[in-house]
């Protein structure tokens, strides 16, 4: 039903019947549905799959032409252990649980992944206490196998590495995130979830204590100029809405008329660029290598992909004034080649042999953050009726790293919390 209604957008547009009703919503088709998941990133996919497997009728509304084109394909593809996050935080719980679920999921389905382990390194004596704090935090979070090492031992494991001490995390790894998402989407569809691509949630309004979603074809937004109002072609009336719109989740929530704006946290965005190591016959490292975390990110680290390609990143570049840009998904993902000049000195702290001219611009991603520069790190925020008073609306805010690792755990959590 719904699939058909959205599929017939073109026709609805063609007869332009909504025009006769001015800016109101009268005359626009309305559909009652069970669950709407906004956004087919890795988190939306994991939620949609789990809900569909539990027998719910799920509609995924995604503004892009396919799944996973946002942050979910612009990250380090690292399966995090769960070290960095305050004990009992959602990040700590979902990361540890999500990691276990993810390894099992990938092993059962032959999704490319590898548990290559990671070294967090102190390159100066003054950094060693921070390693001890991370060791304690990770252990409190239930991460198994963490072990402090002398620099000499770490440098025997990784001959190109320079450090004075290292924290070994054997359960960290890497995953092919595209294969993972392809599998989630396939399993969701097999469980009868419907995907509506090229469809954007413009906003919504609360009516009879329920959130009604305003849906439009994405191409109408692309051609949209600010002078005319945005009108939906369809109104969905779901029992349950999961706002997993990633970078747009906050600006979208602001477009839910009747949702108390005081409960919507401030949005901050921080771009992270990657540079790749060129001409590597033999990759210099076989583990993930991370420096001590920096403000806003985990530090310019070494990741390997499953083809052995080495990349360094992501750095942290705060971006301002993106509220409407973010709603329209018009992010700038270009990598400014000049930023490489900051990479060389950072990387040489732990990889002194890095040759001039060996780094090539890679790609970038943007972190959907809830804290700004120099502010304490924020946890994931999952809002429901108790926070905002609207039954059946779940907002997922600030799902930055370790969101990929956490995705299956978030899917299970939300599905268990909102049984049909
Ligand atoms: C630089 C960087 C490195 C990272 N590294 C790691 C890592 O190594 N390990 C890890 O675990 N995590 C990592 N993360 C975090 C991880 O990538 C994210 O937490 C995760 O991808 C978020 O998924 P999502 O589904 O919430 O969001 P997204 O992937 O952004 O998906 C949101 C989707 O919603 C769609 N959408 C937006 N607005 C609308 C609308 N109005 N209507 C319809 N659809 C809409 C978008 O098109 C998009 O497809 C990293 C993040 C960044 C930025
Ligand atoms: C989405 O839009 C793109 C570009 O406009 C088009 O090529 C693609 O076929 C559309 N996909 C779907 C599923 O409608």
UniProtKB/TrEMBL annotation:
This is L-2-hydroxyglutarate dehydrogenase, mitochondrial. Signal peptide: none annotated. It catalyses: (S)-2-hydroxyglutarate + A = 2-oxoglutarate + AH2. The lineage of its organism: Eukaryota, Viridiplantae, Streptophyta, Embryophyta, Tracheophyta. SUPFAM superfamilies: FAD/NAD(P)-binding domain (SSF51905). Coiled coil: none annotated. It comes from the Eukaryota. Belongs to the L2HGDH family.
């Amino acid at each position: 039903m719904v699939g058909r209604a959205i599929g017939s957008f073109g026709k609805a547009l063609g007869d332009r019947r909504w025009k006769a009703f001015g800016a109101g919503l009268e005359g626009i088709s309305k559909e009652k549905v069970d669950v709407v998941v906004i956004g087919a990133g890795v988190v939306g996919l994991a939620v949609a799959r789990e809900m569909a497997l539990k027998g719910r009728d799920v509609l995924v509304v995604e503004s892009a032409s396919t799944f996973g084109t946002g942050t979910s394909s612009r990250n380090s593809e690292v399966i995090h252990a769960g070290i960095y996050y305050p004990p009992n935080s959602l990040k700590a719980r979902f990361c540890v649980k999500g990691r276990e679920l993810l390894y099992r999921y990938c092993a059962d389905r032959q999704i490319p992944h590898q548990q290559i382990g990671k070294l967090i390194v102190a390159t100066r004596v003054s950094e060693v206490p921070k390693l001890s704090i991370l060791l304690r935090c990770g252990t409190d979070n239930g991460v198994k196998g963490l072990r402090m090492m002398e620099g000499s031992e770490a440098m025997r494991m990784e001959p190109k590495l320079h450090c004075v001490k290292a924290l070994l995390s054997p359960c960290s790894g890497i995953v092919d995130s595209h294969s993972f998402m392809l599998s989630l989407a396939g399993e969701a569809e097999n469980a009868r979830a419907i995907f509506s691509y090229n469809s954007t949630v413009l906003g919504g309004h609360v009516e009879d204590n329920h959130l009604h979603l305003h849906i439009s074809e994405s191409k109408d937004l692309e051609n949209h100029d600010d002078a005319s109002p945005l009108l939906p072609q369809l109104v969905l009336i779901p029992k349950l809405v999961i706002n997993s719109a990633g970078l747009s989740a906050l600006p979208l929530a602001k477009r839910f008329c009747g949702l108390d704006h005081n409960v919507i946290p401030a949005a901050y965005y921080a771009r992270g660029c990657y540079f790749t190591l060129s001409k590597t016959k033999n990759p210099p490292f076989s583990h993930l290598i991370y420096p001590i975390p920096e403000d806003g990110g985990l530090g310019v680290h070494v990741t390997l992909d499953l083809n052995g390609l080495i990349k360094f990143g992501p750095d942290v570049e705060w971006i301002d004034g993106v509220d409407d840009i973010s709603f329209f998904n018009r992010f700038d993902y270009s990598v400014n080649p000049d930023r490489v000049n900051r990479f060389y000195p950072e990387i040489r702290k732990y990889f002194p042999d890095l040759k001039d001219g060996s780094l090539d611009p890679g790609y970038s991603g943007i972190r959907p953050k809830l804290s700004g520069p120099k502010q304490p790190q924020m946890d994931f925020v999952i809002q429901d009726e108790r926070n905002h008073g609207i039954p059946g609306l779940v907002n997922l805010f600030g799902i930055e790293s370790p969101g990929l690792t956490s995705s299956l755990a978030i899917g299970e959590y939300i599905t268990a919390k909102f049984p049909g």
